Amino acid sequence: MTATSRLPSGFYRVLAFLALVAAVVAIFALIEPRYLSMRNLTAVTRHMAANGLAALGLTFVVVVRKYDLSFPGIASFAAMTIGFLIAGGYSLGAAIAAGLGVGIAVGLVNGFAVAYGRLPDIVTTIATGSIVGGMAFLYTGGRTIFQNFMTSGLIDLNDIRFLGLNASFYFLIAIYGVAYLVLHHSRFGASFRAAGENPVSAHLSGIPVRLYTMGAFAVCAATAVLAVVLILAESGTADTNEGANFLMPAYAAVFLGAALLGGASIPATLAGTALITILLDGFSLLGVPYYYSDGVVSLILLAGVVLFDERLRREAAFLMTFLGFGRKIGETHP
Amino acid sequence: MTEISSPMRPQMSFAGFRAIGRWWLLLALIASLLAFAAGRPQMLDSGNIVTILRSASIMAIMVLGLTWVIAAGKIDVSFMQIAALANMTTAGLLAQGSGWALAALCGIAIGAVVGLVNGVLVGRMRLSPLITTIATGGVCASAAAAIGAGTSIRIDDTGLLGDFLAARLGPVPLIALFVAVLYAVAWWMQERLTFGHYIYAAEQNEEALVDVGVPVHRLLVLVYLISGVCASVAGVLLAASLSSGQPMIGSSYFIDGLTAVFLGGMMIRIGRPNVIGTATAVLLLAVLVSGGALLGWPDYQREIIKGALLLAGVAMAVRMGRALDGFAKGGRS
Fold first, then answer.
1. CB-nearest partner of B142 from A118, A127, A292
2. How far apart are CA A94 and CA A117, in angstroms?
3. DSSP strand pairing (A161-162 vs A165-166)
4. Chain B residues with CB-CB distance to A136 below 8 A
5. Which residues sit opposite A162 in a β-bridge?
6. Subunit contact A291:B150, Cβ cutoff 8 A
7. Cβ contact B131–A131 (<8 Å)
8. Which end of chain B is more exposed for a tag (fewer CB within 10 A), N or C?
């Protein structure tokens, strides 16, 4: 995975991506005219908000070349924590803050184990995800929480609209904007990405690689909690497996985006999320049964990583240089 | 591997300490069995032992191939969904009136195909093992649910396979003996054939292995293929054992399978997954589940315990593995 900031190739990739989105939308609109309705646009943007938030944190983890499989468990645990506190009469702000607190705490444990304990990321996060997923049952023994949800103002978060779109979508765009500036246009972001590209030389350049890695896991946990808050607001109940549906779309968004735009980055994840949400929403509008959705997302993800395989990309880049488009073959991570 | 790398390893001074380090998982198994038996004497009833052995046998078949995938330094998170797909394929074909032999073969064939796809994508195309198997696992899960249109499929006649699962030789179910033989063969393959040596070598340094002319790609394809076949055989056995096809069966085996392999990696060849370790860990998990049920622990407590075990297993495997070959790898990575 190389950085995306080379403008010319990135520009063509963005064009190609927009063309792909337009083609997908056109196909859906031809089959089902309702696809272009305002109502559907609202639905797409709302679904995008939750998936996009979950994928955003994962992007940070992937940028430092790690994986996190615990965020669905963290989201479930945080959802039950928030639900339990709201049911107990605490204010919405306090409940969400507590949810963020427990989520970030687990994220820090993950990060500490992986960065400082040097444990393998995949298995460690599977284990912590399983632990916190089990802890989601602690509050009620597995029963759904819904008390006080109406009066707490949580549901209202789902209903605030502005220019026909949900507030959550604007929140998503704003947080992506901040993440973009931090990761791609700040000194901190540059050293953060360097920590992922080559941890050894980053370490020798004085970058606190381990601290950044730990931070990435904490960010991933935090955005997963924010995403599940949106889901809670939408459904009006807190369930013990509230976060389970985040895993596939988040991974697909990050890696499909990386495949489309040539490397894991904030815009790439946003693009991946948009494409996947458009597709999933279209399929559900066409009445495709729910159990196909994971399969569809998986196939898209697989197609994305196969078609944009690094070797294929390198060969394509070679062909481009050969044909005189002038771009040097990018040095890739070994 | 032990013979090959021992000159590089720092010699441990206490042979007894080393033996405990290598066999402590077995001690943990015996200790937990005795502890549960002290609390609930029904634990050691022959009926309960048979139940434990039977569920452990199916689990052991499912994760045999996974052990080698992880030993080769890769990961497979699609194994439980392959089992679910094989399970539903078998149940679906039986519901349509085909015989057990055909249904079981089709289930296993599908598992082999998915394993082969995993192997080609990871071994040949060098894609990320995690992303690849997340995706193929997702496809399998969807396909499994689609076969039953989202619900389970009942099987009226469990056929010969049902008889095989029910059969016992004295106090031991036949399937457990079968698995014991299977694991003995696997141990022999892992220890005595170049196949096994190359697996551990691939984990250490894949490029070096390519340089000396070992067909690593083919090895990885083979290892993933074995994992797919093992998982699907377990899925077919589950169809007979549960007298139904259950599309959601995968998620319950996910943590257990990985926990078994990584806990097993802390035994005998410390820091390296191996088949005897996996078998012991599978038994330990089955004892925990059974004992926990007898003591009335709720499901989620067992999940938390399993997660904690997995974490402890990985932490210790990594620590001990690093302490042992830290010098060979030149200290810090």
1. A292
2. 32
3. antiparallel
4. 300
5. A165
6. yes
7. no
8. C
- Cβ contact (<8 Å) for B136 and A135? no
Q: Is the ipTM of this complex over 0.85?
A: no
* B244 membership: H or E segment, kind and range: strand B244-245
Structural tokens at position B44: 């050691």
Contact flag B311-A122 (C-beta cutoff 8 Å): no
Counting as low any pLDDT under 70, the low residues of chain B are 1-18, 20-21, 321-333
- Model confidence over A189-204: pLDDT tens digits? 999 899 888 888 999 9
Backbone angles phi, psi at A207, to 5 degrees: -85, 130
Tokens 């996947």 correspond to A276
**Per the structure block, which two tokens stand in for A266?**
């904030």
**Domains of chain A: residue spans and CATH:** 7-322 (1.10.3470)
Interface check for A294 against chain B (CB to CB < 8 A): the answer is yes
Answer yes or no: do A305 and B142 touch at CB < 8 A.
no
What pLDDT is recorded for position A8? 54
Residue (of B222, B317, B274, B278) closest to B62 by Cα position: B278
Please report, for chain B, the start and end positions of each structural domain, with discontinuous segments joined by +: 48-249
Coil vs helix vs strand at A327: coil
Distance CA A185, CA A178 (A): 10
Owner of token pair 């520009």: A11
Q: Provide CB contacts within 8 A for A323, sequence distance 6+.
A: none
End-to-end CA distance of chain B: 21
Q: Are A261 and A268 in contact (CB under 8 A)?
A: yes
